[in-house]
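Service request form, structural biology core

Requester: graduate student, group of Dr. S.
Request type: structure prediction, single chain
Budget code: on file
Notes: please return the result as structure tokens.

Sequence provided:
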Amino acid sequence: MINNAGYCLVSKVKFGVLVNVDTAISNNLSIMLDDDPDLKHVARFIDGRKINHELGVMVWNSVTMKIEYTNSGAIKSIPHLVEKLTGSLS
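Core staff response, request fulfilled:
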């Protein structure tokens, strides 16, 4: 999650999804994301402009060749990400 969050902050992107391969999210990280909104919704100011970042966690299952949603973070699924992207464009 740290690398994902760091990348989002450095690149100034609005949305980031950490995708684990064949490994579920740890219980500790899941609890942290559920209990601390600052880990999944990061707001900061750069040159007087507010930038919001929203983060989520998903798992790539290499056997089924599908994304599995963990329901952790601000982005719950790929359709949810698309909804957020669409909303940010209007």
